[in-house]
Amino acid sequence: MEKEVHIHDKTFVPFITAPQLQVRIAELGALINEDLKDKRPLIVGVLNGSAIFMADLLRVIQLPCEIAFIRVSSYSGTESTGTVKNVIGLTEDISGRDVILVEDIIDTGDTAKYLLDDFKSKNPASVRFATLLFKPASLRQEIKPDYVGFEIPPAFVVGYGLDYDGLGRNLADIYQLKS
Ligand code: IMP
After folding, report:
1. Taking Cα atoms as reference points, which of 2, 3, 10 lies closest to residue 165?
2. To pair with 2 at 20 to 30 A between CA atoms, which of 37, 60, 115, 117?
C-alpha cells in the first residue's frame, strides 16, 4: 500500500487495506448466502463504482444467481449534484425476482433511494441493498441498507472501484482525502 496517493489536485492517505476488504466481503457473502438460501437472486451491480466490489462479492456468494449491471450518474468531482440520472437501465424483467442491488458507497443516499423506488415499482419478490461503504453522517434520505461493508466518516474516498474525477478506481486499497 502506498503511503500517499496523488490524484489530480488532491492527496489521499491509506484508509482500508485490500486484506481488510476481503475479510469483510467474505462476511457479507455469508450473510447473503444465509438470507437467500433456496432462492435464485438477480444481483445487480451499479456501474462504474461497484464493478470491483461486485466481482469479489459474487465469488463468495454460493447461491445459484444471475447478474446484471446498470449505470446511474449523480457525481461531478467530489460533490453530489443531487439529481440521479439513469445512464444504462435494466433490460431484465424483475417481477417476482429476489433482487440484490450492489453499490460501492452510500453518501447522501439519493442514488440508493432513486434505485430502490425504481426497482420496487417493478413488482419484484424482494429488493435488498448491499453497499461496501456507508457514510451515515451524509445521509439525507430515509434508507437503511441491508448489507454494509464499512460505516465511514463523511470524508471523500478513492480506490477499489471508487474514483475522483475518473481516476483511482484501480487502486487495490481504499484511500481517504488527506485533511
Ligand atoms: P449518493 O447518491 O450521494 O449516495 O452517492 C452515491 C454515489 O456517489 C456513489 O455511487 C459514488 O459513485 C459517488 N460517491 C459518493 N461518495 C463518494 C466518495 O467518497 N468517493 C467516490 N465516489 C463517491
Report:
1. 10
2. 60
- 3-state secondary structure (DSSP) of residue 6: strand
User: Ligand 1: does its nearest atom lie under 6 Å from the Cβ of 109?
Assistant: yes
pLDDT, residue 36, reads 98
Mean pLDDT of 154-172: 97
Q: Is the pLDDT of residue 155 over 70?
A: yes
Asked whether residue 80 carries a pLDDT value surpassing 90, the answer given is no
8 A C-beta contact, residue 125 and residue 97: yes
Ligand 1 atom nearest to CA at 106: 4
Grid cell for residue 176: 481517504
92-116, pLDDT tens digit by residue?
999 999 999 999 999 999 999 999 9
Distance 175 CA to ligand 1 centre (A): 14
Residue 1 has a pLDDT of 81
Residues 6+ apart with CB under 8 A from 25: 53, 56, 57, 60, 132, 149
Cα separation, 158 vs 178, in Å, equals: 11
User: Do residues 116 and 127 make contact, with C-beta atoms less than 8 angstroms apart?
Assistant: yes
Q: Which residue has the cell 443531487?
A: 82
